[in-house]
TrEMBL record:
NCBIfam families: PRK07475.1 (NF005679). It comes from the Bacteria. This is Aspartate/glutamate racemase family protein. It comes from Sedimentitalea arenosa.
């Protein structure tokens, strides 16, 4: 039997565009490879710091992200995602630039989650930076107008450590920041039926948030796992390349 090649790597169907960061990435974080039940392929976008992407609107970085996405495709991935929800700004441009599916942001789940809920219930967003999450970020991800937004921005550890790109982070304080912000969001919006975590670094705290609020919590981890389940390179049988859920 002959086998055709043509790619630099095999078995990693999802490529992840990474910010250039040094803060700790614990299990459950998108940037920790042990988080995933399938192989992934990372590509760091140089100079794309958390500060520049989240607080400065990723200004001047589009070409670098497109170049990195194209490099991932050349390497052999079958779909691309990113490790920052604020990159919804680049969804249309990245999807147009490469021949594989692209999901830039966990925010893209919000409309779908709304449709899962009963009448009078809606999803809310928990973000790392409510002050810089703009209507354009939400519009590019097709988030319904009026969606409630809560933030860890007023906390003690999570937002500060990540956006300042610290090399150390108190995980317990970060967990508390996430839980407290989620509870505040729930208290402010009694019609909340679910929470979507904008920040890809919130994954480790999703179970704690769900336990504290009693609500379904949707993170980038579940979203990309669903995304990956539909990726099947036509060159090879699915049983050899794809994890099915």
């Amino acid at each position: 039997m002959k086998v055709r090649g043509g790619r630099a790597l095999y078995g990693a169907s999802v490529g992840i565009l990474m910010l250039e960061a040094r803060f700790p990435r614990i299990p459950g974080d998108m940037g920790n490879a042990t988080t995933w039940p399938f192989p992934v392929h990372y590509k760091v976008v140089r100079d794309a710091s958390p500060e520049r992407v989240v607080r400065q609107g990723a200004e001047g970085l589009l070409d670098a992200f497109i170049d990195a996405a194209r490099a991932l495709v050349t390497d052999g991935v079958d779909g691309i995602t990113t490790n920052c929800g604020f990159l919804s700004l680049f969804q249309d441009e990245l999807a147009a630039a490469v021949p594989v599916p692209v999901v830039t942001s966990s925010l893209m789940q919000v409309g779908m989650v709304d449709r899962l809920l009963g009448p009078g219930r809606r999803a809310g967003i928990l973000t790392i930076s409510g002050s810089t999450l703009t209507p354009l970020h939400l519009a590019r991800a097709h988030v319904p107008e009026g969606t409630p937004v809560g933030s860890t921005e007023g906390g003690r550890e999570f937002t500060r450590a990540i956006l300042s790109n610290e090399t150390e982070m108190d995980i317990e304080l970060a967990r508390q920041d996430n839980v407290e912000a989620a509870l505040a969001l729930q208290a402010a919006h009694p019609d909340l039926g679910a929470i979507v975590l904008e920040c890809t670094n919130m994954g480790p705290y999703a179970a704690d948030i769900a336990a504290a609020t009693g609500l379904p919590v949707h993170s980038i981890i579940g979203f990309v796992s669903w995304f990956q389940s539909g990726l099947c390179p036509p060159r090879f049988p699915c049983r050899d390349n794809c994890v099915r859920f």
